[in-house]
TrEMBL record:
Region feature (Disordered): 191-263
Main enzyme class: transferase
A molecular-function term among this protein's GO annotations: protein-L-histidine N-tele-methyltransferase activity
Listed GO CC annotations: cytoplasm; nucleus
Name the record gives this protein: protein-histidine N-methyltransferase
CDD domains: AdoMet_MTases
Length: 378
């Protein structure tokens, strides 16, 4: 199986440097070091209200100064995403109302249960699932897909690139959606749009190059407002933020994405919040909504969330649909894992689970398909 990164910034993060000298200061969190390189901090479960996030009307603006890398797995289309090391080093520059960037850095933790659920980085089972999809050749054309607990969103992005008609991304943290999932989706959509434009131009179908229309608009808008109000960049940013309405829905201007210019992107929706409130938000809008494919990678590490997760899968999977679950056998320190989840699913009696792949190197990992038991399918 070919598996390559075409860009890799070799950086040592502060946490890596400090790892050996990490002080155990006995604060309110309990820390464990379950797997080399992964630190999990547990805290009482809290609930986070669901919010929908919208791409800005000028999508290129989210990619200013973005440093990206590309993963290529076999015959799958290349997937672009923000370089994690650069993201970590520049995290202090970002708006982060949830304060998860500072907390994860301060605690050198990849997971703070109920606060930050790990979506800032790509977890290894995502790569397993991508490999399996390459091997088995799942078809996405015209499908409605949910990337549940998406983090970087690579699984949903693959579905989008492979022709899914709608892809919904959900992550617990709004910071993850705003600063990672959305930019990653844009990186892929905008690149494809530009390639398509170039192809059309080379065939002589289009006279002029649209070439980053958005960037031109941004420049003009910014120049204009800088001239007239002499506001600094950060003042402008704050102004935009203050214009957001109270429930967190972005300013109307940000919602007005031109779907004719960005057809792929207009098939995407982005949500933050815990699974229970995500479920009520999305069903309130459309009680009949069902997904043909649900991806969920590295989301069964905490037994306390099984009920909300199972309920969400049960309510949202289409009859005849499939859930792809990618997981480690066991999550040391948090206690969850495949066997506990299997027991839970069996007790509920709603889904069959079919093991598609066991990855033996390193910590044992699995890719599992879940379908409704026959009686529930139709
Ligand atoms: C370890 S991360 C995995 C991220 C990504 N799927 C990957 O494989 O790289 C777990 C993800 O599950 C989601 N998650 C965990 N518990 C959740 C909960 N109670 N409600 C909503 N989302 C949750 C978070 O969004 C988080 O990004």
């Amino acid at each position: 199986m070919s598996f390559s990164f075409n860009f890799d910034v070799q950086l040592t993060t502060k946490c890596q440097q400090d790892e050996e000298n990490q002080p155990q200061d006995g604060n309110e969190y309990s820390e464990v070091e379950p797997v080399p390189g992964i630190t999990i901090t547990t805290q009482d479960e809290t609930v986070k209200a669901a919010v929908e996030h919208f791409p800005p009307a000028t999508p290129h603006s989210l990619l200013n100064d973005a440093v990206s890398e590309t993963i290529t797995i076999g015959t799958l289309p290349p997937l672009n995403f923000l370089n994690e090391s650069v993201f970590e080093l520049t995290a202090y520059e970002r708006d982060d109302e949830e304060m998860i960037l500072s907390q994860t850095t301060a605690q050198c933790s990849d997971l703070i249960s109920g606060v930050y659920e790990g979506g800032l980085k790509v977890w290894e089972c995502t790569y397993d699932l991508l490999e399996l999809l390459e091997r088995d050749g799942e078809r996405f054309a015209e499908k409605i897909v949910l990337d549940l607990g998406c983090g970087a969103g690579l699984l949903g992005i693959l579905a989008l690139k492979r022709g899914a008609s709608q892809v919904h991304f959900q992550d617990y943290n709004s910071t993850v959606i705003e600063h990672v999932t959305l930019p990653n989706t844009l990186l892929n959509c905008l690149e494809e749009e530009e390639e398509e434009e170039e192809e059309e131009e080379s065939k002589g179908k289009k006279p002029g190059k649209r070439q980053n229309n958005d960037e031109v608009i941004i420049e003009e808008e910014e120049e204009e407002s800088m001239k007239s109000t002499e506001k600094t960049k950060s003042e402008l940013k704050n102004k935009q933020k203050n214009e957001e309405v109270e429930d967190g829905r972005p300013h109307a201007k940000r919602q007005a994405l031109d779907s004719s210019q960005h057809p792929k992107l207009s098939g995407c929706r982005f949500f933050s919040g815990d699974w229970t409130s995500f479920l009520s938000l999305i069903l309130k809008e459309d009680p009949s909504l069902k997904y043909d494919i649900i991806f969920t990678s590295e989301t069964i590490y905490n037994k306390a969330y099984y009920s909300a997760l199972h309920n969400t899968l049960h309510r949202l999977l289409a009859p005849g649909g499939v859930i792809y679950l990618a997981t480690k056998t066991h999550y040391f320190g948090v206690g969850g894992g495949l066997h506990l989840f299997e027991q839970f699913v069996e007790e509920k009696g709603v889904f069959d689970m079919e093991k598609l792949w066991v990855v033996e190197h390193g910590l044992q990992r699995h890719v599992v398909a879940m379908h409704f038991k026959t009686k529930d399918r139709f």
